[in-house]
Write a structure and sequence with these properties.
CATH topology: Aminopeptidase
CATH class: Alpha Beta
Strand order of the largest sheet: 1-2-3-4-5-7-6
Distance between the termini: 27 Å
CATH superfamily: Gcn5-related N-acetyltransferase (GNAT)
Strand content: 25-35%
Structural class: alpha+beta
Protein name: GNAT family N-acetyltransferase
Radius of gyration: 15 Å
Largest sheet: 7 strands, mixed
Order of helices and strands: EHHEEEHEHEE
Helix content: 25-40%
Shape: globular
CATH architecture: 3-Layer(aba) Sandwich
Organism: Streptomyces formicae
Length: 174
């Protein structure tokens, strides 16, 4: 399945904020986990989208949103809260893929990969991408490994968060 991909930047965050929150709410509609609550996610969206390097890709199928991916740059020497920067990573910035969500009707059709690729290939300033994956979802960890990521750590950044695998992928910057 091919979807229409639209790119957004920091300056567009206010225009797409509610859509991101709505997609998140639908993805987590069966969860009563406070970490997955809409208000909690709104704080994450606001924090990330406030960064000038924030970028987002939203995928549409026939005008309907199918999912999104967003992230921003970690400056050289910065890393995920709760994890140590791996050796050799302090000399350049990294692109932190913060969220990738696909609504249920579009799962297992390659939409997540399209969103990921559209977001990550646009990053020419960073030699690597990094992300966190809930370790209780080993199929998702395996999916990212199939896309070239490798696990370098595990962490629990918040008392009420799951344990995440910290994953890294080298980017081919042309």
């Amino acid at each position: 399945m091919t979807i229409e991909l639209k790119h957004f930047g920091h300056e567009d965050a206010g225009k797409i904020r509610e859509l991101l929150l709505d997609i998140h709410a639908e993805v987590h509609s069966n969860s009563d986990d406070p970490f997955r609550a809409r208000t909690r996610f709104a704080g994450f969206v606001d924090n990330w989208s406030a960064l000038p390097s924030w970028s987002c890709v939203i995928g549409y199928d026939g005008g309907r949103p199918a999912g999104f991916a967003y992230g921003a740059q970690f400056a050289a020497g910065r890393w995920w809260k709760g994890s140590q920067l791996p050796d050799g990573y302090g000399d350049a910035p990294s692109f932190a893929l913060s969220e990738l969500m696909v609504l249920p009707p579009w799962r297992k059709q390659g939409v997540s990969r399209q969103l990921h690729e559209a977001l990550v290939v646009s990053r020419h300033q960073e030699p690597r991408a990094t992300l966190l994956v809930d370790v209780s979802h080993p199929k998702v960890v395996d999916l990212y490994e199939s896309w070239g990521y490798r696990k370098v750590d595990e962490q629990k950044p918040f008392e009420d968060s799951p344990v995440f695998a910290v994953m890294v992928k080298a980017l081919a910057n042309d």
